[in-house]
Design goal:
mainly beta; single chain; OB fold (Dihydrolipoamide Acetyltransferase, E2P); 5 strands; about 100 residues
């Protein structure tokens, strides 16, 4: 114990003490590529999409703004945050008007 106190004192004198800080949780996300849009609800705001594997998901959107311009049948890439909210949508293909 005495050695560790001496070492801590020496490191302090040399200006080498760095506070121990736990890393913050990253904003990791899950991405689905080439999903098919099934429904868009701007009022909720929510998005229903179908994955390549055939799973259908309805998730809240982080904001209604990211849903603007989407229509049923559009093919998109979708990113989802740790709270299961859609945070980013990139259109790959769109249906005809």
């Amino acid at each position: 114990m005495m050695k560790s106190l001496i070492l801590a004192g020496v490191l302090t004198l040399l200006g080498l003490v760095v506070p121990l800080v736990a890393p913050t949780e990253s904003l990791a996300s899950l991405a689905y590529t080439r999903v098919s849009i099934e429904a868009v609800d701007i009022a909720a705001p929510s998005l229903t999409f179908k994955t390549i594997e055939g799973q259908v998901w309805t998730l809240q959107a982080a904001s209604a703004d990211i849903l603007q311009g989407l229509r049923k049948g559009d093919t998109c890439s979708v990113e989802i945050d740790l709270e299961n909210r859609v945070t980013k949508i990139v259109k790959v293909e769109s249906t005809s008007p």
